[in-house]
Amino acid sequence: MNFRKHGKREEPEINLIPLIDVFLVIIIFLMVTTTYSKFSELQITLPTADAEKASTTQRNEISVAVASDGKYAIDGQMSSARSAPALAEALRAATQKLKAGGTTKDPVIIINADAQATHQAVVNVMEAARLAQLSQITFATQSAPAGN
């Protein structure tokens, strides 16, 4: 007994167009309701030093102070140099003074920058050290107050 008619049976298929429409609506909803956070500034805590300064038997360092107005002092002597090449010449002269005093190694450049000094002024010192072929650079830090 065959109760079916001899007609062609249609295969069921999944219609993807409504599914795509639903996904597009969901994507638009998520894009509209998502909040984007923006960082307005970086909170940076600068380093402080708690250790005692190590005493050395022979001075092998050149101290470069950077003032807030962009002026430089090399080993306590004010320098008229403002650009990296001019600072490099001053660092070479300071290195020659140290080597004349009996130091054989390249000196360590210690950068003492004022908190209000521009970053460019500090970068100029680092560039001058590179031009003078002095590879050892360090930054001086401020001791933390005793109450902290």
Structure write-up:
The chain has three helices and seven strands. Helices cover 32% and strands 17% of the residues. It is α/β, with parallel strands linked by helices.
Query: Helical stretch count?
Result: 3
Give the H and E element order: HEEEEHEHEE
Taking the sheet with the most strands, its summary is: 5 strands, mixed
Number of strands: 7
Low-confidence stretches are none
C-alpha end-to-end distance: 97 Å
Strand content: 15-25%
Q: From the alpha-carbon coordinates, what is the Rg to the nearest angstrom?
A: 34 Å
Approximately how much helix is present in the residues?
Answer: 25-40%
The general outline is rod-shaped
What strand line-up does the widest sheet have?
4-3-2-5-6
Q: Pairing-aware structural class of the strands and helices?
A: alpha/beta
Give the overall average pLDDT: 80
What are its keywords?
single chain; 148 residues; alpha/beta; five-stranded mixed sheet; two-stranded parallel ribbon; 17% strand; rod-shaped
Provide a brief overview of the structure:
The protein is an alpha/beta fold and 148 residues long.
Give the SSE map.
Blueprint: H1 17-33, E1 48-49, E2 61-66, E3 72-74, E4 77-79, H2 84-100, E5 108-113, H3 119-131, E6 137-139, E7 142-143
Parallel strand pairs: 1-7, 2-5, 5-6
Antiparallel strand pairs: 2-3, 3-4
Helix pairs in contact: 2-3
